[in-house]
Design brief:
Length: about 350
């Protein structure tokens, strides 16, 4: 299960909850409190889908097995109240996680520490604990990608590597019962590009597995490069003043408030009291890319989601997301995802 456990902070209470909204186990997958399966039919035997839907919102989990012990998870959620997901039999040999939007807080067993991941975060972690809990918060839609490696795949990929590895990978290879740790960093533009290609992949069968494996390995390489030389159990420092963080987050809110017709960059910099270079620098620290790159990625991410709606046309999506023409949108989409938007079965 894709528990997101990267940024450590003090917990607000002890003990492990016995109740929740969604439950996960290896044997049953995702179920409701009443043990009703949330599984959905999938035409591809290598893909598992689960979906929770109620008055409280929707949570969807999508798992693709690339090889035995090598999986890619995509989680999407939009809820109107805090929701709790409990897991058992959930030891994680080695995992690579990315948060594109939203925020979750997770905890393993009955420890007094909580771990948080939010938009723009990515991290590597492992845990031998077999129970976990994640909280999903209302407000912004949640979207996360999670690459899970079992011990056989960890050894296959890393055991013969003569290059220096991040200490967290070394400890994952040598871990002992009852242990776990993490490293956290910021998502880079190169990571975002690979993540979007995973999320928007419309291939099936062997072609899908090969494509996703190539992107998953690319993401792992980017993370290993980014964490080279970072002390075990620590995050790469963000070096951003709390006031600059507040102003940058306000700039982000202004940008996404009307993504189709966003304010000019000059208006944003004036509103938050930061120069253009400084805002871009802070934006890259918090969200992994510049203001313009974030706007482009977010527009295309939302456009891709709209293309899944029944009856929508490419022309409608293009103008809804603020593109000057369908052809402009099509070029941007292909450059970002490597395929034409018509692959999503939308009509011209």
């Amino acid at each position: 299960m894709p528990l997101t456990v990267f940024h450590e902070k003090d917990n607000i209470g002890a003990g492990f909850p016995d109740d929740g909204d969604i439950f996960y186990s290896l044997a049953q997958g995702f179920t409701t409190k009443g043990q009703v399966s949330l599984a959905e039919a999938s035409p591809d035997h290598s893909v598992n889908r689960w979906k929770y839907s109620s008055d409280s919102g929707e949570v969807a989990f999508n798992r693709t097995e690339l090889r035995p012990g090598f999986e890619v998870w995509v989680t999407n959620a939009l809820v109107n109240r805090e929701m709790v997901c409990l897991a058992k039999d959930n030891a994680i040999d080695l995992a690579f996680g990315f948060c594109l939007s939203g925020n979750t807080v997770s905890r393993f067993n009955s420890t007094n520490k909580e771990l948080e991941i939010h938009q723009g975060c990515q991290g590597i972690f492992y845990s031998t604990h077999n129970r976990g809990v994640s909280r999903i918060f209302p407000g912004e839609p949640l979207q996360q990608v999670f690459i899970s490696l079992k011990s056989n795949q960890v050894h296959r990929i890393f055991s013969d590597d003569r290059q220096p590895l991040p200490l967290i990978v070394k400890h994952a290879l040598e871990r002992s019962p009852g242990t776990g740790n993490f490293q956290l960093g910021c998502t880079t533009p190169a990571m975002l590009n690979a993540l979007q290609q995973i999320i928007n992949c419309r291939l099936s069968g062997l072609a899908r597995k090969l494509f996703l494996e190539s992107r998953a390995l690319e993401l792992i390489v980017h993370q290993l490069e980014g964490f080279a030389g970072v002390e075990f159990g620590h995050t790469r420092p963000l070096d951003i003043h709390p006031e600059d963080r507040r102003r940058t987050e306000y700039a982000h809110d202004l940008l996404v408030r009307n993504i189709a017709k966003p304010p000019h960059l000059e208006d944003i910099t004036k509103a938050v009291g930061m120069s253009h270079p400084k805002l871009n620098r802070c934006f890259k620290q918090l969200f992994g890319c510049t203001v313009f790159e974030y706007l482009r990625n977010e527009r295309l991410r939302r456009a891709s989601a709209l293309l899944e709606e029944p009856g929508v046309t490419i022309t409608e999506v293009a103008y809804t997301m603020g593109y000057s023409s369908p052809s402009h949108f099509t070029r941007a989409y292909k450059k970002q995802f490597g395929s034409l938007p018509s692959i999503n079965s939308a009509r011209i």
